[in-house]
Amino acid sequence: MSYNFKHRFTEETVSKIFEWILKEAARAGYLSPEAVFLDGTHIKANANINKKMKEITQSTTDPESGVFHKGEHKKCFAYEAHTACDKHNFVLEVQVTPGNVHDSVAFDDLYTKVTERYPEIKTIVADAAYKTPWICKRIFDDERKLSTAYKRPQTKDGNHEWWKYVYDEYYDCFICPEYKVLHYVTTNREGYREYKSRSYICEKCPTRAKCTENAK
Questions:
Q1: Which neighbouring-strand residues pair with 58?
Q2: Model's pTM, two decimal places?
Q3: CB 176: neighbour CB atoms within 10 A?
Q4: Cα torsion through 9, 16, 37, 112, rounded to 10
Q5: How far apart are CA 149 and CA 130, in angstroms?
Q6: Furthest C-alpha separation in the chain
Q7: How far apart are CA 209 and CA 75, in angstroms?
Q8: 66-99 b/e with 16+ CB inside 10 Å = b?
Q9: Kindly report the CA angle at 96 between 91 and 97, in degrees rounded to 5?
């Protein structure tokens, strides 16, 4: 069956079938895109975890997949289908990535496609994995609402409390509890913006141990 499917259908024809089904469902009045629900589902790849390229941990059988490992799951190569559904469980849009791509990283492409197709969307419903500053800003800038779970700020035991770091919006930087500047460096794979200090500034900081464990 999979061999038949692979040779009879291309990515383009599957996309056309998907769009036709959605148009027919909309014409019959079954779609309700005012609120969409985002989530990701892992799909195990048909690839042996022991057959990989060591330096980048890439499958030699299915190089487009990615290593997935969460909780009690065994490590395996997998894909993740990031989907946007309406309240009637119709899949309105999908974005497929390697299994090691975080939901928040896949958000941009999925959000862009589903909102272009359904500009009437008013609310985005998602779990805490999507609750990042960038995602919140993008949704709010589009004058839409984000409905998500409460995510408690995380502070390591013994470190400075998170609320002691003050954000300066104008200069896009943080001020630490010792009144030193942390500059923006990069956005990580989870979609979080990272801010770091200069090593020579923190070298003789009296509360350095409450901020970082780095040697330098």
A1: 53
A2: 0.59
A3: 19
A4: 110
A5: 10
A6: 69
A7: 34
A8: bbbeeeeeeebbbbbbbbbbbeeebebbebebbb
A9: 150
Single out the residue of 96, 106, 142, 107 nearest to residue 123, CA to CA: 142
Token digits of residue 100: 């090691």
Structure tokens belonging to residue 24: 């027919």
| Tokens linked to 142 | 């589009």
Secondary structure of residue 186 in the 3-state scheme: strand
User: The dihedral of CA 6, 12, 18, 24: what is its sign?
Assistant: negative
Q: Which candidate, 125, 124, 117, places its Cα nearest to that of 93?
A: 117
Q: How many C-beta atoms surround the C-beta of residue 207 within 10 A? A: 13
Contact 191, 132 (CB under 8 A): yes
Amino acid in the structure at residue 148: T
Residue with tokens 């038949």: 4
Kindly state the helix (H) or strand (E) to which residue 103 belongs, with its residue range.
Answer: helix 103-117
The rounded distance, in Å, linking the Cα atoms of 101 and 24 is: 32
Each residue's pLDDT tens digit, 7-44: 677 777 878 888 899 999 999 999 999 999 998 887 77
Task: Give 15-23's long-range contacts (Cβ < 8 A, gap of 24+).
Answer: 22/90, 22/92
Position 94, amino acid: V
> Using one digit for the tens of pLDDT, what is the confidence trace for 73-100?
566 667 788 889 999 999 999 888 887 7
